[in-house]
Write a structure and sequence with these properties.
Two copies of one chain form a homodimer. By secondary structure, the first copy, chain A, is an alpha/beta fold. Helices cover 30% and strands 18% of the residues of chain A. Chain A has 15 helices and 16 strands. In chain A, strand 13 (366-371) and strand 14 form a beta hairpin. In chain A, helix 1 (2-14) crosses helix 7 and helix 12 (265-277) runs parallel beside helix 14 (302-308).
């Protein structure tokens, strides 16, 4: 009875609370354990890869010593399976003593001493997704304070083993509890992913007020199919999603799998570019100790990062979807610049796509174009027809530096680039390459 | 009427004709244009990539000068879209005069001078798949003679725009016609792919008598999904397919797409390894002028090639299919050796798979194991439990040098390794890494 009254009181105050922690004015960047290391707790047989303080210290060393930190990758984030199966005798969460013998606070110091930040993981239900102790409603204040005491910098708050009503109470409550600790703690909410990710079930205005970022959709897996599935969902629902994003509040399409096992170099560039267009958090989930130079060069691409981190914080949109499998994405950037992304869904050969900036709704004028992945530059009049050769499952990404003169309200309302884009872009090339069998 | 009588006579003799050209005692290796270059005939705008004599000479230069030839990659094969849309005034096929100004014979000489061989493409119907002139029944002898006059070394005979009855006549007829020229010309038949690839519609005994290799299934595309789809089909139907293969007669799961745009390094190793297990023809379809060193090292792996080229010519089989997504393949090799392949269909993280050689039906004894992609060696007793860590969509491939003592007839009849393999391999590791969402 007491708990029920308490919950009701929380419900009244929690939903109107604004998240005023001043954090993540651009999408957060760092490293997150889950996709690559899952719930590997077998430190005896797999000591280099199990979820342990050693793994996070290893990754911190790499971020700090190999120049990742200077690029903006500063968060080192723990996911599920870090804790003991039991709370301590004062009811607090505690890390697994064998795998985190130094404790979380010491780990946080290790990171802070290197200019990095520590993220931790909790779950709104009785149990986490992997059945470790969760943080249900009656534990929220305690656990928020524990995380603050440990000097944690970010919390991913998952939603397994909770229902919609509990989530509606719990996610705002955790926001309030984190704020109440006085420690700035970035707050990642998995809430919308458990509610289908779309209005009216999901209230993105509220989310922007209580969370710094939120997972809208399912977990990424180490495959191109998974990336495509996520990209499809985010851009098919761009009218609902793009207005939600902005400084301090981000849609999160999940981790970067660049440097893992499932993506080709083309596909890796595509994920980096699409995540930049989406103003997505950039959480790498790979082994920074052994990552290839090719994957590194993509994750370290400074122009792609700067597009991702643009101060305006406007999430980009898909503006063209051709029958040929070519799609064009656009994101307005500060200084009246913009990013243009040409993407091919084809699986045959490089496709020569012909268009012009005016066909892509750029206003009259001369533009300077910078190719993000080749460093080539060019000047281009709006009316000039050009050809971009886009590799199968690959991208061509441009930073366009001259004024695009867009109207922000029209953009959000989809009036400029309502999807599907008005058909002013003809297929200029016959499709000779399809339909063959054997 | 005259033609009909002629065809009837051909039908009587053609189907009993054995292909006695002595060619391709091991699976043919080389380069084939289709997957990467398709029907790109736009030499004006895309001169480096269009189907032209320049493209084939470029690839010949690379094969000859970069050490591919010495590894066995000797065929340079033209696919569709090479010819003029019209036959010449004597009714003969002729190459497109703009794209092949020197003619095919000159191109053949260019290759022969470099120790390479030339393959060409025809189609059993009125038109090729891309609507160039085909080689229907009444043109078979003429075109076979034309190819021989041009000193061509291989023919891929496609099946678009022909029906089952025409194919039943035409494929044996072309075999006979090629033999009748007196020039050894390797003969690749697309026939089974047009008939579903399986008995009783497809007669593999007959195919082995008239063709050196045959396409059983659909075209490969530049994607991992496509590779998986092909692998699934070939191993689900291994009971029907493996007995058909042997020296001079090969199942063809289509080209290697390693070095193109759609496969990660793991997936590239997997295609190379699975094609080696399958005793598949190794036709690269990529740009040898710009191929990455990573892709090169896989295509140039001498142990993988030697397994593919094993003199016994026995096509390997899948012997284990675990619920965890781990599969094991096995191929018997000459000198009583064998190849073992561990493959992961997972998309999460490296999987530690525990087994032993005795669980994989090896007889008692001590074996020497050579890791094809890491060059590590080990000695292993049949009873020793070992762990292989298999990356997502990746493989671990072993050459096992000691006697495997298999019974060839039992192998073909699936008695040793009937699929599904008798369940003697327990899942030794709990599946802690699945089912999580957000």
């Amino acid at each position: 009875m007491h708990v029920a009254v308490l919950l009701f009181a929380f419900a009244l105050t929690g939903t109107t609370l604004a998240l005023d922690n001043g954090l993540m004015r651009t999408p957060p960047m760092g490293w997150l354990a889950w996709e690559r290391y899952r719930c590997d707790i077998d430190c005896e047989n797999d000591p280099k890869n199990c979820i342990s303080e050693n793994l996070f210290m290893d990754m911190a060393d790499r971020l700090a010593e190999d120049g990742w930190k200077e690029l903006g990758y500063v968060y080192v984030n723990i996911d599920d399976c870090w804790s003991s199966k039991q709370r301590d005798d004062q009811g607090r969460l505690q890390p697994d003593p064998k795998r985190f013998p130094g404790g979380i606070k010491k780990l946080a110091h290790y990171l802070h001493n290197r200019g990095l930040k520590l993220g931790i993981y909790g779950d709104m239900g009785k149990l986490t997704c992997m059945a470790y102790p969760g943080t249900p409603l009656d534990k929220i204040e305690l656990d928020a304070q524990t995380f603050a005491d440990w000097e944690v910098d970010m919390l991913k708050y998952d939603g397994c083993y909770s229902n919609a009503m509990e989530q509606e109470l719990g996610y705002p409550l955790m926001s309030k509890a984190l704020n109440a600790t006085g420690r700035p703690i970035g707050y990642s909410c998995s809430w919308p992913a458990y509610q289908g990710g779309l209005p009216p079930k999901v209230n993105y205005t509220q989310l922007g007020e209580i969370c710094n970022l939120w997972r809208n959709y399912g977990d990424i897996q180490d495959s191109w199919d998974s990336v495509l599935n996520i990209v499809d969902w985010f851009f098919e629902n761009q009218d609902a999603l793009t207005p939600a994003a902005g400084p301090g509040r981000w849609n999160d399409p999940d981790m970067l799998i660049i440097g893992d096992f499932g993506l080709s170099m083309e596909q890796s560039r595509s994920q980096m570019a699409l995540w930049a267009i989406m103003a997505a958090p950039l959480f790498i989930s790979n082994d920074l100790r052994t990552i290839s130079s090719g994957a590194q060069s993509i994750l370290r691409n400074e122009m792609a990062i700067s597009i991702n981190q643009d101060a305006l914080g406007i999430q980009g949109r898909r503006i063209v979807k051709e029958k040929s499998g070519i799609e064009v994405f656009w994101r307005p950037l500060s200084k009246n610049a913009s990013a243009l992304l040409f993407f091919s869904r084809r699986t045959d050969m490089p496709y020569r796509y012909t268009t012009s900036l005016s066909k892509l709704s750029y206003t009259a004028g001369s533009y300077k174009v910078f190719n993000v992945f080749t460093d080539e530059t060019a000047s281009l009049k709006d009316s000039t027809e050009f050809v971009v050769s886009v590799n199968p499952t690959g991208v061509v990404m441009w930073y366009v530096s001259a004024p695009a003169k867009f109207n922000l309200r029209q953009f959000y309302q989809g009036e400029i680039f309502r999807f599907p884009f008005k058909k002013i872009i003809p297929s200029t090339r016959k499709h000779r390459n399809e339909g063959k069998r054997c």
